[in-house]
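Homework help board

Subject: predicted structure for assignment chain

Our instructor gave us this sequence and asked us to write out the predicted structure in token form, then describe one feature. I got the tokens but I'm not sure how to describe them. Can anyone check?
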Amino acid sequence: MHAASTRIFISYQRASADTALRIRDILTDAGYTVWLDTDQIRHTDRWPVAVNQALEEADSMILLLTQAANESREVFNEWFYFYKNRKPLHVIRLDDSVPHYQLLSLQRLDWNGRIDDEWPRLVAELLAALRPTGNESVSPAPETVVTTPLAPPRSVTSTLHALYSALLHPDKPVALRPEQLDEIQLHQARDLRDYYLACYSRWCGPEHRLDRQFVRLNLIYDEGPGSPDRWIKMPSVRESDDLNEILTSSSSFAYVLLGAPGSGKTTLLRRLEMDVARIGVTNPDPRSVVPFSVSLAEFGLGHRERAPNPLEWLQHRWSTRNPQLPELRRLLDDGRILLIVDGLNELAHHDATDLRRRVDAWRAFLYEEIRDIPGNRAIFSCRTLEYGAMLSSKDVGVPHIRLEPMTESQVLGYIDLHLPDHAELAREVLLRDPRTLSFYRTPYMLRLLVSQVHAIGTIPVGRTDAFAAMIRELLRREILAGNQRLINTEILTEREQRRLRDGVRDPRWLPNTGSFIPALTRLAYQMQSTKLGAEKGNVVVTYDTAIDLLNGLARIAEASLHVGFDTGILDEHEETIRFFHQLLQEFFAARQLGAADDLSQLAVPTRVDQVTPALSARLDDLAVGEPLPPLTTTGWEETAVMAAAMTADPDGFVRQVLAVNPALAGRCLAAPDVDCSEAVHLEVAGRLLASVFRLAVGP
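My token output:
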């Protein structure tokens, strides 16, 4: 398409009018037909009609992106029209505003602070971007729902209808407000269609987005405890990026999704629920699959001595959430349930015997209610292989779907996509040290990196910097949005509010004088301390328990919790509370652990005669060729590594760790953001080498 026949719509907010006029003049001189609203029509009755006609006739759009444009309903409506209709969008960023998440995958021109000094070169960039190349900047495949506070108001009934229509017509996405999605979930489902819509809406926010190009899944079959190669990667099953595809192309009744903390297991399960719910809406069938999602962190909550029967627990949760729908027992008998169970490693337990008893109860449920009724299926998520392996029996193996860490090329591709203006710097920092790159091989940590770069323009070295930056930015947004809870100077002092508002350059600073950060620090540490079992995972407590754990902060305990909900650091669901992510919980707990005088909770047995159960008993239970199970962990390992990076005395902290857990001391030193002296490095290395030598030569 030649310039003379190309019609360009310029979308902008009023404060950018001068720049819009300069661009219009340049494009007009270059032969383009440009539509730009003016003061003469903006305030007349004809303006909406004129804008609509111009949007329909335009071939492409130039969006002048500013913070004010981000907050403008008119600007959103204009670019959303192009997004829906898959028309080319060219984004020019005029300040340091962060684009709407649906615009992130588009190529952008960064003119922030450069217009007056570099105008000729910027114009040349724009004309080059507009020149047809066969690879124009077209909107990506649209999401069914675009979440934005700028969406039009709707009743619950209208919102349900709008979402239903968008699912039936995926090429015509709908814009919905976050509170409208919440209303769908709170709305009591009258039938399964309402239920499917609620399942779908639950994960429509940008924080739950899944970009499949950064996902690698491998299906691993359990050949049984008698096989010399028990866990094998089936050569006939290709690597996939779609969890539902693996489930529907395999005949197993149950699976375990295996992945490291932050790797995206929970996000994949949520997208699986969305995919199945979409099918239930778009292909109504009397036997369509019904997804039912639960968290094992909530299993047995309040039953410290004896966990409930899994079927009874599931039936109670189903009937409480969905009193007007068919009973779970009936859906199970009809073979229609896909049970999605998050957090097998978060199953509370007293000791190894109690853990085995509780997992055995779930395995019995799987065999009786899932395997023995054709059509039913279940998928669990888990951090480590040994937990998932417990679901297998001597005769029946439960396959694992392994979520692989992102490759170096995937990490760099993510950076190029989400940080185009800082990609070169980010690449340099990540590739300089393999340890730094290893921290960012999960989507969760990459999102933290992107958040910090957008907030203060620096690249975090490790997790502690990234978490601190994220928390500061979340608080800053609430302050700028006028959150009334943060006006309370007991929560954040006036000086802390001012520093957050103006921006902080210290990568690890957090507001510690007011009560908010100390309250979350105490809450996280106490939650982790009171969790039963060695695998702490993402701990869940009731609301009342959370208040009790904040003993001593009674006056501001509830206020602190609500600020946690407002910022998204805490998540409240059905009167239970958890941190948004288990690594975030461990970050806050690490702040207290780093100041502790006693680190006995980090101690693990290091000698054969100290391990329970004894090695001889373990060997009797192992099949030929089956590897030894790993040694007992404390559940504090990730917390300790972050504490080593945050403590004011890293040498002293690592020496304390070395006294009770030498291997963990080595892990602390391997972290790129733990700054210890050469003397401590030599002490830890010497202790580890001495241990290996003793093992080699014997007593």
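Reply (TA_rk): Your tokens look well-formed. For the description, you could write something like this. The mean pLDDT is 84. That's the kind of observation they're looking for.
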